[in-house]
Amino acid sequence: MEGGSCLTMHSITIQQPWTFTRKKIVGTFTQQLEVFGCDSEVLHLDLWLQGNHMENPDNKREVVLLACGSFNPITNMHLRLFELAKDYLHETGKYKVIKGIISPVGDAYKKKSLISANHRVTMAQLATESSDWVEVDDWESSQNEWLETLKVLRYHHQKLASSNPDNSLQSAVPLIKPGRKRKQEANRYIPVKKNQLSPETKGVPQLKLLCGADILESFGIPNLWKLEDITEIVANHGLVCITRAGNNAQKFIYESDTLWQHKNNIHLVEEWITNDISSTKIRRALRRGQSVRYLVPDAVRAYIEKHNLYSPESEDRNAGVILAPLQKYARGCKQEQTL
Amino acid sequence: MEWITQTPLREPASIQKKVKCRSRSWCAVSVMMKSRLPLVLLACGSFNPITNMHMRLFELARDHLHQTGRYQVIEGIISPVSDNYGKRGLVSARHRIAMAQLALETSDWIRVDPWESEQEKWTETVKVLRHHYNESLRSLQFRKELMRKNWPIERATEDFLSSLDPVSPELKLLCGADILKTFSTPNLWKEEHIKEIVEKFGLVCISRAGSDPVQYISESELLTRFQHNIHLVTEWIQNEISATHIRHALCKGLSVKYLIPDSVISYIKHYNIYTEESERGK
Asked: Which of residues 175 through 214 in chain B touch A, CB cutoff 8 A?
């Protein structure tokens, strides 16, 4: 008989879940199987063999996708990223995407032409009204200071964990990591501390950073990201990166020791239409009185028109101002870190 | 469709001369038309299904033509091909028309016309152009008569009235620049048809940044002769949503949200239009 589900049900006794003893079980199946078995509770063997928590009978890992960015304004391309990522993860058979979160950056990011967060959040909300799984979160945008992406990830992970009935205290972690010495050496491999926010925590959905290939490649821009942040992002959370022709992104991962080490946690998704609807181009078109219909959702277009959001003046906002992360890291950084 | 309701130009108000008259705003537009030629865009194709990119072509073309200062685009027409075009995977015209109508519900200037899809045999592009041009002339005649009837006699002088006569709009074929290339494919187009299209009507060709449609024109004597009637528009914001890919995605259960309107997606799901069978062609 074939392998797989043609197993006779065997009940075995197990102890409290966290202590295991190895047992070899040879029964009525075609293969010898080693399982971790304990005493006390009775579980069905097939579930044991699948080795999964019982609250997810699909055996699929739940995933939440988080996209950070300016969304200045949000476009159909941003929205497509979510759809592409969801389809891709579902097709692997290993994941189930349960939520998408759009987290617009705060005004303190000081990017050129960045308009008020209120507008950007509202437009994103209008854009996601027709979606039953993607929503907007304004926590990041309402902070007074600019926040590193990792902090936003940690915040949302904590939020997910605390709303999960299986985990309360285990996942409670202070928002800001306790201060520790940050000795950076070029090329030094920094081991990641597995804290309680580790994705292996039972029942908590995995939170993955959703981005375009440009974000991935921005990891290499000096003083834009902290190496330890990137490491923690790819080690503890994971990336879903939408690319055009996967080659550049793959090469970039290959050329980075850190990314290479965690490449199993970096999902490259190729988009099958050339979609170049960047916010920059949208703003340019609007300044020139050109139509942006069918490139951004209609409700967003109407909102922009009503409030006359984008003009040559708005484009000049923050001109000459240094981007917040560059300001922050350039001050504290003594040596360039190698990704 | 009447052209009495005009789409407002997205331009400073100084260009529009406001004329007080009883017959509403089209008077102002008629005066404006003296300096700008009214123009209608016609797009032919399978629209199997209609996508955001199809509709974007219209927006791009309109912006471009307005920015020349010479035209005012007053209407866009989508003309889906008839079922006996025989293309593999082509679903029933009934559905393709319905989907296009849903997609264009929010547009105040683009509409779907079922005439071509209702013809028994496949209709050459030039014949579709001729049909819509004749239709526009008929409608124009009707408007002229309406105007003269409604204008109060005491104010009317013949000069004034004729200055208000609506100008017959130009009809141009809206297409991708790759159409220019297909003109040189043997037996695909009749030479006299190409000539009529570029001479009598005109083309508005959208091409993506980086391609070189000028080359296709220069390689053809005919196209070179009428190049003044071929408007080349560059699409800088690439968004190449191929209907073929859409159909494949739908068959595989993948998402096409934000590539085609939500209302079209609902319609497709409701009628289960795109399947493995429909792709193979029954």
From this structure: none
Q: What token pair was written down for B75?
A: 């209407």
Structure tokens given for A146: 């600019």
- Give the burial class of A41: count Cβ atoms within 10 A of its Cβ; 0-12 exposed, 13-18 middle, 19 or more buried: exposed
pLDDT in tens, B246-273: 999 999 999 999 999 999 999 999 999 9
Query: What are residue B257's phi and psi, to 5 degrees?
Result: -60, 145
Radius of gyration of chain B (CA): 21
CA distance A209 to A271: 17
User: How long is chain A?
Assistant: 339
List all residues 6 or more positions away from A84 whose beta carbon is below 8 Å from its beta carbon.
A242, A269, A271, B255
Confidence of residue B280 (pLDDT cuts 50, 70, 90): confident
3-state secondary structure of B127: helix
Structure tokens at A206: 């995995």
Using alpha carbons only, give the angle A84, A86, A90 rounded to the nearest 5 degrees: 120
Looking up tokens 């497509």 gives: A80
**Cis peptide before B169, with omega less than 30 degrees from 0?**
no
Reported as a single tens digit per residue, the pLDDT across A86-125 is: 999 999 999 999 999 999 999 999 999 999 999 999 999 9
Using CA atoms of B9, B12, B14, B20 in order, give the dihedral in degrees to the nearest 10: 40
Q: Note the residue count of chain B.
A: 282
CA B91, CA B47: separation in Å to the nearest integer? 10
List of chain A residues whose C-beta atoms are within 8 Å of the C-beta of residue B257 = 79-80, 83, 131
User: What phi and psi, each to the nearest 5 degrees, are found at residue B206?
Assistant: -100, 130
| CA gap B103, A129 in Å, rounded | 18
Task: Count CB atoms within 10 A of the CB of residue A265.
Answer: 18
> Which of A217-221, A296-300, B148-152 is most confident?
A296-300
Phi, psi of A136 (to 5 degrees): -110, 140
Q: What is the pTM of this model?
A: 0.77
Does the CB of A200 have a partner CB in chain B at under 8 Å?
Answer: no
Q: A280 in contact with B at a CB cutoff of 8 Å? A: no
Whether A173 and A197 have beta carbons less than 8 Å apart is answered as yes
The tally of CA atoms less than 13 A away on the side-chain side of residue A272 is 17
Residue B177 confidence class, pLDDT cut points 50, 70, 90 = confident
For the segment A255-271, the average pLDDT, to the nearest whole number, is: 93
Q: What would the 3-class secondary structure string for A37-54 be?
A: ECCCEEEEHHHHHHCCCC
B42 touches chain A (CB under 8 A): no
- A91, A294, A308: best mutation site toward chain B, by most B Cβ within 10 Å? A294
Contact between B257 and A79 using a beta-carbon 8 Å cutoff: yes
Q: How far apart are CA A116 and CA A319, in angstroms?
A: 15
C-alpha pair distances (Å), B2 with each of A118, B26, B75, B140: 42, 11, 10, 9
In angstroms, the CA A20 to CA B211 distance is: 65
Q: Name which of A130, A272, A281 is nearest B237 (Cβ-Cβ).
A: A281
| Mean pLDDT of chain A, nearest integer | 78
Residues of B in contact with A281 (CB under 8 A): 236-237
* Residue A197 pLDDT > 50: no
Put simply, whether B10 touches A (Cβ < 8 Å) is: yes
